[in-house]
């Protein structure tokens, strides 16, 4: 994390800054290229409501269904549903990935245009796909498009980290969370990464 961003958090939120001071390392992070968007969305769908380790295991099995591990919408549609299900995915996720593949192919969802869209337009575009809700779209904004100012109110880890760090006795309301989160702008994505990391230390 660069000096400018650290100084921003030091200025606006000393509680979050104290966590930054305790974090030894934050993994390098950059946006992905447009030809990776489809695979990233498949991974995001697979990862819904799963631990990182479980999601990685299932994605690795899913990847093995493709020659040279090259996942494309055309190939997804050709693979029988049962075969994808056997990789460890819930039936609902099989349907979501097939719907993503179909909408990508028929250009209902034009992945190549996402790079230049606003965060709000990306959310609107992605949620056209069955099974892609705000959380999945927000993870895509953060980790695939590399957007710096995104916060996910639907993420349980972020909610738990805020509850722990800011001394809430019960789950904070959206309004309470927003009061804390809004001052982090324009670096809310970095704040999310710090919050997730705080659960490990």
UniProtKB/TrEMBL annotation:
Family to which this protein belongs: Belongs to the alkylbase DNA glycosidase AlkA family.
Top-rank taxon: Bacteria
What PANTHER family does the record tag this protein with? Answer: DNA-3-METHYLADENINE GLYCOSYLASE
Query: Into which EC class is this enzyme placed?
Result: hydrolase
Q: How is this protein annotated for GO cellular component?
A: cytoplasm; protein-DNA complex
Question: Locate the Helix-hairpin-helix DNA-binding motif class domain: which residues?
Answer: 124-143
Is tRNA processing one of the keywords? no
* GO terms of biological process kind: base-excision repair, AP site formation; DNA alkylation repair
- Lineage, please? Bacteria, Candidatus Roizmaniibacteriota
Q: Which Pfam families match?
A: HhH-GPD (PF00730)
UniProt organism field: Candidatus Roizmanbacteria bacterium RIFCSPHIGHO2_01_FULL_39_12c
- The residue ranges of the HhH-GPD domain are 46-200
The protein's name in its UniProt record = DNA-3-methyladenine glycosylase II
Molecular-function GO terms, alphabetical: alkylated DNA binding; DNA-3-methyladenine glycosylase activity; DNA-7-methylguanine glycosylase activity
The record's EC number reads: 3.2.2.21
């Amino acid at each position: 994390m660069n000096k400018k961003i650290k100084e921003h958090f030091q200025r606006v939120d000393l509680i979050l800054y104290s966590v930054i001071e305790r974090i030894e390392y934050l993994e390098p992070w950059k946006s992905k290229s447009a030809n990776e968007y489809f695979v990233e969305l498949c991974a995001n769908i697979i990862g819904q409501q799963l631990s990182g380790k479980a999601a990685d295991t299932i994605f690795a099995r899913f990847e093995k269904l493709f020659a040279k591990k090259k996942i494309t919408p055309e190939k997804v549609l050709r693979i029988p549903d049962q075969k994808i299900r056997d990789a460890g995915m819930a039936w609902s996720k099989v349907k979501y990935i097939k719907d993503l593949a179909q909408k990508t192919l028929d250009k209902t969802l034009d992945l190549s245009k996402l790079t230049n869209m606003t965060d709000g337009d990306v959310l609107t575009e992605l949620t056209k796909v069955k099974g892609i809700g705000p959380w999945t779209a927000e993870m895509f904004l953060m980790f695939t498009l590399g957007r710096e100012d995104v916060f996910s109110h639907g993420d349980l880890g972020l909610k738990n980290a805020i509850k722990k760090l800011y001394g809430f006795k019960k789950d904070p309301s959206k309004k309470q969370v927003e009061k804390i989160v809004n001052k982090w702008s324009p670096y809310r994505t970095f704040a999310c990464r710090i919050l997730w990391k705080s659960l490990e230390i």
